[in-house]
Amino acid sequence: MAIDGIGTTLSSHTVAGVRAQNEQVRTLGAGFSKLLEGAAQVAEGAQGAASSSAAAPIDPNRGQTVDIFA
């Protein structure tokens, strides 16, 4: 019974199959690196914007609503 699935297992572990999987991992890794770089840039931009602009006062009559376009 276990021998029935051995052909499928072996065919997915050929040299070409392993190379294709390695290429997919490289592509995913590169995409993940770009995503992290973008997130870091957004975080730096948000931190820079927060430190460079004065905070808008919170109107106690409106709860915690702050006009972010001020």
Automatic annotation (TrEMBL):
* Source organism, top-level taxon: Bacteria
Q: Where is the composition biased (Low complexity)?
A: 46-56
Region: Disordered, residue numbers? 46-70
**Name the UniProt record assigns to this protein:** Motility protein
Organism listed in the record? Thalassobaculum fulvum
